[in-house]
Amino acid sequence: NNRNAVGERNISPNNVNSLTIKYVIPTDNSVSATPVTFNNNVYFPDWAGFLYSVDAKTGTINWKFKLSEKYLPQPADPQVICRDTFAIYPTEKIIVLGTQNSLNGGGGFVLAITLQGELIWRTLIDDHPFAIITQSPTIYNGGVFIGVSSTEEGAAAFSPDYVCCTFQGSFAKLDLRTGEILWKTLMLPDNHGKPGLYSGNSVWGSAPAIDPSKGLVYIATGNNYEVPPDIVDCVKSAKTKEEMFKCHDPKNYFNAILALDINNGDVIWAVITSPFDSWTVSCMPGVPNPENCPEPAGPDYDFAQAPLLVKACNKPGCPLLAIATAKSGVTWAINAATGEIFWSVESGPGWIGGGSMFGSATDGKRYFVAQSNSHKDNYIFEKPSRNSPPSTKGGAMVAIDVLTGKILWQTANPTNAELVAPVSYANGVVWFGSKDDNGHLYALNANTGDILFDFVTGGTVACGPSI
């Protein structure tokens, strides 16, 4: 999931500013998933609940199907959507995706369909009414690896008389050909469906990374919604962050980067990056159910992206690193074999909307991350790029040295808007989209951070480009 188009050689820093529109595909609503290209076709979902196959050369729609009408048990909620990037298994020509329900509930499904859009199998991976799939699947060696998230945070805030909370984040492996759940690992101690215990810890961003040589899959997790009363008491009485860390059950994998065994789902190691973080949407001002905000409330500093895997350097003895940036704005590099922290760096301001959100990229030497700065803090740069201002109250692109964790350059978003879209990299060019109303898409020189190309899409960009 390095978001690096390794084979791309046509678009470079020398010619990227000559790009022009080839065609525009009409959709029924916004598109936030990165499109997938295969066999000269483009596949993606939209927020109206449609799935698309489009001819990559002409922009002609090959097929378009409503998710709730064609693929789910009937009657189905028409508001069900897919927001993850499809995974395509080329040999068997299978597309795998997940579903996101509305606050009407319905549980989370994983689907396999043909390249022609016909259903192969459908698996209810979690029957909690607010379970959803927002993580993009990874297919490896006959297995589908995917995490489970939820909208229970929102239900806690907006559903009348809702008793919070019972959802349990998990990560699972399914059989690619049948959809059978081969294993499913909870990210917290089992609450057996009872509120007032451990809940939350969604697995919800980008796609799991796999190291075949070690037989490990790497993910990152979200925050707790609730923790048991004795844990709350312990946290309240703790005098230091170190004491807070010790309050939790060691299997409460919140705000964590983890490695799991791909064969059985056992947790091999976990790095928990926050001392405490219980939070729901009820903690936002003005919501109908403020009583479902935990006390104390955490900062909501979970991970909205899975770690990517990259070697620290090309010399013997350099470890493979699992790197991800949290909504705290802190980037973490973990030794992928041992779980030891290799380095961490505050790469931008944190807040509920980031920090960093839906995916970073690497060229093997540098780690490229979009910092959203959703709180509009005065973000002062350590290494502003040549044409960037020295600070911003908007988002910024950041390049970090993979070996040392040092910031190489920082480039402010010229629109001063947030950056929530995943980053993409190819052939010396870093791509990012802006959340401003006009929807700027920018291309940067990966070496310097200089802006090479600026295209106005006409609508907010929350989607990373496919190159």
From TrEMBL:
Source domain of life: Eukaryota
Any one Gene Ontology molecular-function term assigned to this protein's record: oxidoreductase activity
Its needed co-factors are: pyrroloquinoline quinone
Keyword annotations for this protein? Oxidoreductase
Q: Start and end of every Pyrrolo-quinoline quinone repeat domain?
A: 28-279, 332-454
Cited Pfam families: PQQ, PQQ_2
Family statement drawn from the similarity comment of this UniProt entry: Belongs to the bacterial PQQ dehydrogenase family.
PANTHER family with a match to the protein in the record: OUTER MEMBRANE PROTEIN ASSEMBLY FACTOR BAMB, QUINOPROTEIN ALCOHOL DEHYDROGENASE (CYTOCHROME C)
Q: What is this protein called?
A: 13044_t:CDS:1
